[in-house]
């Protein structure tokens, strides 16, 4: 499949055949993911491959997405990791700075780029995937489950496997809503978002499963009206990220 066509065909997969993915395939995907760009080459990521069935079930429970793990061919926890960098500094007698907002952003960006390389490589092999942000629902408990040390925290989980069904690709915002030329244009949103809502209402009403009456702006309003995971700031402080 051509790269452009592959990227434009993405949809999340939540039910898989249960066929396990060979270790050599996992290693190949990780090696491919590692070729993603990394801020100043710090490579501030680590991945837990969850093969223990009890831990997998517990991760599903703690992330409140247990059904996504039951049929997956492989399950992972993607983490921001400055512990390895701390060890690197110690080799040279340096106590590196970890507790800064900048390093937090660097870690999140590094993990996200790494994970997306992994995802694209997996989809190019015919697998389906699903990101699971629910890993942040209980980050302290998940950290304990996988023995994550200070300076390492879970960003999201991810399942991969052979799909039993592929969902339709969900329409994204129009390019005009996300591409600004030379300066930011907020005035365009009223019209563009009305058009996008109409498109999404049609999509939700006509898709092959889980049909509903909904649009994008209402979903976002309902989702963002309250603060999500207010415990994250205090949790990150326990991991050494205090936003200095």
Keywords:
single chain, NADH Oxidase, 244 residues, alpha+beta, four-stranded antiparallel beta sheet, 4 strands, 11 helices, 2 domains
What is the topology?
Layout (H helix, E strand, L loop, with lengths): L2 H6 L14 H11 L11 E5 L3 H11 L2 H5 L3 E8 L1 H8 L10 H24 L3 E5 L6 H7 L6 E10 L13 H4 L10 H18 L9 H9 L7 H7 L6
Antiparallel strand pairs: 1-2, 2-4, 3-4
Structural notes for this entry:
With 244 residues, this protein is α+β, with helices and mostly antiparallel strands. 45% of the residues lie in helices and 11% in strands. Strands 1-2-4-3 form a 4-stranded antiparallel β-sheet, sandwiched between helices. Helix 2 (23-33) crosses helix 6 (101-124) and helix 3 (53-63) runs antiparallel to helix 7 (139-145). The longest helix has 24 residues, at 101-124. The protein starts with a helix and ends in a 6-residue tail after the last helix.
Strand content: 5-15%
Separate helix tally = 11
Average pLDDT works out at: 95
Identify the CATH homologous superfamily of the largest domain: NADH Oxidase
Q: What Rg is obtained from the alpha carbons, in whole angstroms?
A: 20 Å
CATH topology of the largest domain: NADH Oxidase
């Amino acid at each position: 499949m051509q790269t452009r066509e592959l990227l434009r065909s993405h949809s999340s997969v939540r039910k898989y055949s249960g066929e396990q993915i060979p270790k050599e395939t996992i290693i190949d995907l990780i090696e491919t993911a590692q070729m993603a760009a990394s801020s100043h080459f710090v490579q501030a990521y680590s991945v837990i491959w969850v093969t223990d069935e009890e831990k997998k079930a517990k991760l599903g429970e703690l992330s409140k997405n247990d059904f996504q793990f039951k049929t997956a061919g492989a399950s992972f926890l993607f983490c921001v990791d400055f512990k390895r960098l701390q060890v690197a500094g110690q080799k040279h007698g340096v106590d590196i700075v970890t507790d800064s907002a900048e390093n937090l952003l660097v870690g999140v960006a590094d993990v996200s780029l790494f994970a997306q390389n992994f995802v694209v490589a997996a989809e190019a092999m015919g697998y389906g995937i699903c990101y699971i942000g629910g890993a942040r629902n209980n980050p302290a408990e998940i950290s304990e489950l996988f023995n994550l040390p200070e300076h390492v925290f879970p960003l999201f989980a991810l399942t991969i496997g052979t799909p039993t069904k592929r969902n339709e690709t969900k329409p994204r915002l129009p390019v005009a809503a996300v591409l600004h030329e030379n300066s930011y244009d907020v005035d365009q949103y009223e019209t563009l978002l009305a058009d996008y809502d109409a498109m999404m209402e049609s999509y939700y009403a006509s898709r092959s499963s889980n049909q509903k009456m909904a649009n994008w702006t209402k979903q976002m309003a309902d989702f963002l009206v309250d603060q999500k995971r207010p415990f994250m700031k205090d949790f990150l402080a326990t991991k050494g990220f205090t936003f200095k």
